[in-house]
Amino acid sequence: MKYVLVGPWLRVLFRPWVEGLDNVPDRGSAIVASNHLSFSDSFFLPLVVPRHITFLAKSDYFTGSGIKGWFSRMFFSGVGQVPVDRSGGRASEASLRTGLRVLSEGKLLGIYPEGTRSPNGTMYRGKTGMARMAMEAGVPVIPVAMVNTYEIQPPGRLRPSLRRVGVRIGRPLDFSRYEGLENDRFVLRSITDEVMYELMSLSGQEYVDMYATRAKELIAQGSPADSRAMIPVDDAPDDQGEAAEDEAAVEEDVPTGQVSS
What we know:
Blueprint: H1 7-14, E1 17-19, E2 30-34, H2 41-48, E3 53-58, H3 66-78, E4 82-84, H4 90-104, E5 108-111, E6 123-124, H5 129-137, E7 141-147, H6 149-152, E8 166-169, H7 185-203, E9 207-208, H8 212-220, H9 235-238, H10 243-246
Parallel strand pairs: 1-8, 2-5, 2-7, 3-4, 3-5, 6-9
Antiparallel strand pairs: 7-8
């Protein structure tokens, strides 16, 4: 896929550029945390990084029936993606454990902290599952900004437009200073916000302190979901009523061969 079937075509058509590639270690485990603007992010990010990046793909893509289900299963298995159940509760904890297993094997684990694609190009609040994984595995987080992928293929568009895209890789973030505090929700929120700040700085996106899922709801209602809709966020529900969702920073719109809304 990367070197024969798809990668060469992507390089010719979109001429992807990359900055900060030396920030990706040649070996050892790390979390690659990226903003998420487009379905195509999961193609261009692995394309420019020499090492293989494992993403956590929802289990639905491994259990489909018919020809479409077979193709989906073969595709995800072939590119080394890992199926996880994202229904919440115990499934969220299982997703976390799956991510930790990938990291324990010395691999790169790709995560979109926002949990889903941005519906309008704005950056939204990160979920703390990424921070839990980084703390429990004792690995650095490498912030990555995808550039122009929203312009070529925003959510809902099947066929991408041809223009150049970029990947900007920041310095690895070390959170070993918080060792032993992996169960402190304030520490997890602080780590997550630090990563999101780095992503905002690298990408130049506007940041709004609400979850992307809430932004989608507002847009569906015809309401603004940018700085005009700044809503104070209480950290208490973040780790109580929304704990299951917030602790499993598993990407919601992983590559499937088609675009989901």
